[in-house]
Amino acid sequence: MTDRWATPERIALRQAVAAFTRDRIAPHLPQWEDDGQLPRSLHRETAEAGFLGIGFDESVGGDGGDLIDISIVSEAIVENGGSTGLLASLYTHGIALPHIVDTGDRELIDRYVRPTLAGQLIGSLGITEPGGGSNVAGISTRAVRDGDHYVVNGAKTFITSSVRADFVTTAVRTGDPGHGGISLIVIDTDTPGFSVSRNLRKMGWHCSDTGELAFDDVRVPAANLVGEENGGFYLVMQQFVTERLSLAVQAYATCQRALDLAVGYARERETFGRPLISRQVIRHKLVDMHRRTEAARALTRRAVERAADSGDTTDPQLILDAAIAKNQAVEAVEWVVNEAVQIFGGMGYMRESEIDRHYRDARLLGIGGGATEVLNDLAAKLLGY
């Protein structure tokens, strides 16, 4: 049976992204982490290389491909010296644009989607609010219709790429309390009344700028409404399967990179006159790291293939698959990066060591896209427990 992940086209894609990562990303990542953000030029370079719009149809300015292709890009970047923090920042449009594309609004697509996929604009998604967390239905940032505009007041927090963003696809309350009163609206960050009230410092994802946003009587054209008024909750929910599977891919790709780094170090490092890898306890650690990585990859790839084939992200089975895959992959990566640091010993605790970055970055994967506990509860309901 043909391996869908190893067709000639996908092998070529993986090789091209790997080469791009080794040349244009890995050597500069430590500096970008110190800077706290990626240069805008990287977005343009990635677009010119043909990798920024993977997963978006050519009709909206993308490079084509499906969720398998998106996953291959993520694998290749992380496994060749990139990081999940870099993916979060460089590909934030993966969560900021799909809602716009799904509505088929040609004006919004031309104004926001095409230039973003060309690396000319940076977009972010504004959902989470102070005290809100995973409760999307509890959003309180309000947008009140005033003629041809909406007037927006409220706050958002933990918003990826929002410090550099040119626009924020923002969840607002336009109706009654609950999920039925939520809308999505695109807000340009140069609009009067919009501000990044804080540039947040984080445990990991240092190269990914993250902001706290304030909306003070921000007047937004009604034409920037994404889809139907009060229909935003469903647009957000439809993207959760893809987001969770993408995070699961990032998790097992980090497992693989951590394992590769640990193996390389164990072969080179000598203790008491012998290579570290000659110690049985180290070899057993590496086998366990390999086993957990392979299990997470197999479970996630199966779910990715189903999602790519179905396209129906409201299918309860796909929602369950994504939740289970993400939690399995997160459990694996947290264990694997911890063991990798242990194998590196003191060097693993140094900022100059790449494994330090993966150790810090991995901790967010069990929080973003739905916390592990939230997804376990969701899975229990879908399984009828």
TrEMBL record:
In the UniProt record, does the keyword Flavoprotein occur? yes
The family database entries (InterPro entries) matched by this protein are listed as: Acyl-CoA_DH_CS (IPR006089), Acyl-CoA_Oxase/DH_mid-dom (IPR006091), Acyl-CoA_Oxase/DH_mid-dom_sf (IPR046373), AcylCo_DH-like_C (IPR036250), AcylCo_DH/oxidase_C (IPR009075), AcylCoA_DH/ox_N (IPR013786), AcylCoA_DH/ox_N_sf (IPR037069), AcylCoA_DH/oxidase_NM_dom_sf (IPR009100)
- Please give the start and end residues of each transmembrane region: none
Q: Which GO terms describe its molecular function?
A: acyl-CoA dehydrogenase activity; flavin adenine dinucleotide binding
Query: Which stretches make up the Acyl-CoA dehydrogenase/oxidase N-terminal domain?
Result: 7-119
Question: Which keywords does this Swiss-Prot/TrEMBL entry list?
Answer: FAD, Flavoprotein, Oxidoreductase
An example Pfam family from this entry, by short name, is Acyl-CoA_dh_1
Q: Where is the Acyl-CoA oxidase/dehydrogenase middle domain?
A: 125-218
Q: Which residues form the Acyl-CoA dehydrogenase/oxidase C-terminal domain?
A: 230-381
Extract the PROSITE patterns matched here: ACYL_COA_DH_2 (PS00073)
Which co-factors does it depend on? FAD
Q: Which family does it belong to?
A: Belongs to the acyl-CoA dehydrogenase family.
Official protein name in the record: Acyl-CoA dehydrogenase
